[in-house]
Amino acid sequence: MKYPCLVLKSVCKTLIKVTVFKEGISEDGEPITDVILNLMCNYQDKAKTVITADKQLVQLSAQAYFVGDIAPDLPTLSNGEVEVYGVKRRIFQGEKARIIQDWI
Has residue 99 been placed in a domain? Predict the structure, then answer.
């Protein structure tokens, strides 16, 4: 059974640099780089201003959709950063679609 493509290649028009970190830190306290990828994606972002008692706070969130699994050797994508439009952002959450096959 072939798994359907969830994101069409024709809508992936944004160049993005993805850096995925391994679990843990180095001796210097720096994250350990596992994979660096330059890919095309479908990038969606939004901003929201939250007014606190002291000042305004801007919260940014974004989603990047890729064709297929960008790191098939990694079980999860939970830590890292991306660079899109010249701005670096931290990966807060990663999600992989899993294929569940029926056992006969």
Answer: no
